[in-house]
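notes to self, project folder thing:

trying the whole complex as one job this time. last attempt i did each chain seperately and stitching them together was a nightmare. two parts in total, labels are on each line so i dont mix them up again. if this works i'll redo the older ones the same way
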Amino acid sequence: MIRAILLRLLLFAASLLGASGIIFLVVNALPGDVAQVILGTGATPEAVAALRQRYGLDRPGIVRYLSWLGGLFTGNLGTSYVTGESVTSQVLPRLGVTTWLVSFAVIVALVVAIPQGMVAAMQRRRWQGALASATSQIGLAIPAFYAGILLVVVFAVKLRWLPANGYQQLHDDNGWHVAAWAQRLILPVASLAIVQASVLTRYVRSAFVEVLNEDWFRTARSVGWTRWRALWRHGIRNAAISVVTVLGLQLATMLVGAIVVEQVFSLPGLGTLLLTAVGNRDLQLVQGIVLLLVAAVLVINLLVDLSYLAIDPRLRSARGGSR
Amino acid sequence: MRRAPLWVGGVLVGLVLLTALVSFVWTPYDAAAIVAPKLADPSLAHPLGTDHLGRDIVSRLMVGARATVVVGVVAVALAAGGGVPLGVLAGMLDGRFGAARWATWAGEGLMRGVDVLYAFPALLLAILLAAAVGASTTTAMVAIGVATIPAFARIARAATLTVMTQDFVLAARASGTSQAGTAVRHVLPNIAPVLGVQASVSFGIAILAEAGLSYLGLATPPPTPTWGRMLREGQNVLFGAPEQALWPGLAIGFAVLGLNLLGDGLRDLLDPRLREVA
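result (full assembly):
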């Protein structure tokens, strides 16, 4: 068990190192001078040289990479070449908005998808099952930002129940603003969750249809257990592996989806900061935020891998667990 | 009825492809020209009305289909071109098929390397590229294509491992066919259907990614219309003319729905046992 966990941690560290290398290469090794890119074509050679010297851009690439990598171990994502501020200090205040958005969307998606997928599996030859499958197909085809725009049309433009955009901090110097905060998060969360719930419903259904066809399920039924009891006692654990796998993949999709949804609702999250940095050609900030998001995707994958060990004891030997 | 997904998907995808093709030779109006008052209601001359500048929405949707199809096709071709050889190679380098120990390790290393790319969703890679070299149709295509390589590599490797255990492959290898000959003559033709399903699904994902990038202004620049940017422009006039955002979103939805249904239909055709599960 410990060997299996260590193996996964080692793979995680190697992947993170590889990813940091790719990010650094794309940002720094592409044609063109980074200082020139930041200052634009109109910059004087003196200004370009001064910027290069100020941030050590005249050092060899490998030295700059190792210095950036070293900083990461102390939580330092680098210094913005444009504003001169620490990347970490710019990122931290934005993390909350994106974290709220993605976390609530995951919870809502799971609360909707698990019962809906189970019903779709149990009733797969009836109209309820067909309806659940059709709904999930439509959800799969709609981008989250389009779902967001449609929700704004209905709930902000037509019904005027909720604000169309903007954000309110949960707590500031004037106290707590729970109602206003929640009001501004409902539509963004719903637009991310609707799409993800559709994807998850499809996989929950598939996993439970497989469970319903298993020999042990028939045995449980033949000794008098109801379908729901057999599913509750044994089915959930058996279906969990595929559902957890898809949930892991979807979480990564949601993180990226949040970047676009934040634009739809003008939320001051990590995605908005990233796109502002792209607009300002703040490469160091882009590098830091992309690494943070990629690290989040890798951590999710690691957690999914580790959860397999908890769900399925057969995977606890290191060899059995390797893909 | 059983082949309904295949047919419905085929028709929807066919319509999108046809629209994109027709747009090269004919559109009702110049998609970039102001041809009527802004935000005009639907009429015979402009069946879906005009946008916030007075441009014909039908013409813009038709030209938008072109960008969608081109980005999707190139990205999927790039992903398949990179991922399939990697996956087949990694599959054939498995120790069970007589590969040397170092070769097996090399194959495993190859897949681990590809796995690192899994941590880069297409949109994120595109944003990174846009920051480094500027946003364009090419960066969007490259980013979506590169980010899709792992999906093709994994599916090609899994399918290769299955094919390599078949009797006809064992016979070919026993009769002295080279590894490259086995890959081209036996492995590739037999894994092609599975790759076709993957291509269909990946095409849908590429369309969604392109729409997201266009919405953010990180793909094809103006004045060429794209469905994603039309959505963004529609959102700007949401309170006055909410239907403006409806049409491009529906176009994206129909195209992706068609590709997903086509993928489902093809998969059912390949393995009918999966029909109930999926």
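what i see at first glance: The CA atoms of residues 25 and 107 of chain B lie 47 Å apart.
need to look closer tmrw
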